[in-house]
Amino acid sequence: MTPLYKRIILKLSGEALSGDRGFGLDDQTIHEICSVIKRVNEQGVEVAIVVGGGNYWRGKTSTLMDRSTSDNMGMLGTVINALRLQASLEEMDVDTRVQTAIEMQQVAEPYIRRRAIRHLEKGRIVIFGAGSGLPYFSTDTTAALRAAEIDADVILIGKRGVDGVYDSDPKHNPNAKKYDSLTYIDILNQGLGIMDSTATSLCMDNQIPVIVFGIDDPTNLLRIFEGETIGTVIG
Ligand code: UDP
């Protein structure tokens, strides 16, 4: 059976990897997520992952240093996560390559678009580390950029603690309403914090559909490929 999407960008926030700890890495959580990624890959889906770094550091939270330095720290955090995901996937015998947008060739391949596509075509999972390599950007924007570059069919954003996009924060407002679908313009106009405006604009300009879903139950990812309506579809 032909999968629903042939090539995807899976965006995992750093927090998705930290489980209930809220910081750093949780081995069991990572194992569960990687098991599901393996199953998706086995269906013949080409999977590229953009991983965040918020489980260590977010550039804009620091007031004690210049933003570029702080963002560089954030990007390095994403590389730790990329290597951790690779280790878990390889333990499950899944061929995986890490490519970083900041060169560190002793650690991982540099980001080379054509090579990334070649890996995907061979069935390898490609994990993009170090974001876009540029300060003032986010890994959501990186996901949009890489999706456009590698011609991905969809961006799947796995969120922790929430199962889609709401009109207000469901953790604070019990009456918050979940959206099944939204347009990019809705997100921009309503200032919905699910994706930053740079990422949203990039997706809008390049017509890249996005699905925001809850990663607390990683099998949600499989359900998307089974055609279930999960999370919020942005397009
Ligand atoms: N970052 C950056 N440029 C990028 C991607 C990320 O400077 O292209 C930095 C930024 O400081 C950001 C941090 O890396 O806060 C971690 O990424 P992000 O906040 O997107 O991670 P997530 O919230 O998805 O875990």
Overview of the molecule:
The protein has 235 residues and is of the alpha/beta class. Helices cover 36% and strands 19% of the residues. The chain has 7 helices and 11 strands. A 9-stranded mixed beta sheet has the order 4-3-5-2-1-6-10-11-9, sandwiched between helices. The protein has a two-stranded antiparallel ribbon with strand order 7-8. Helix 4 runs parallel beside helix 6. The relative contact order is 0.16. The model has no long low-confidence stretch (mean pLDDT 96). Uridine-5'-diphosphate binds next to helix 2 and helix 4. The site of uridine-5'-diphosphate has 22 residues, from helix 2 and helix 4.
Radius of gyration: 17 Å
Mean pLDDT: 96
Largest sheet: 9 strands, mixed
Give helix % range.
25-40%
Overall 3D shape: globular
Tally of DSSP helical segments: 7
Order of helices and strands: EHEHEEHEHEEEEHHEHE
Distinct ligands, ions and cofactors found in the model: uridine-5'-diphosphate
- Low-pLDDT residue spans: none
How many beta-strand runs? 11
Structural class: alpha/beta
Q: Walk across the major sheet and give the strand order.
A: 4-3-5-2-1-6-10-11-9
Name the beta content range: 15-25%
End-to-end separation: 25 Å
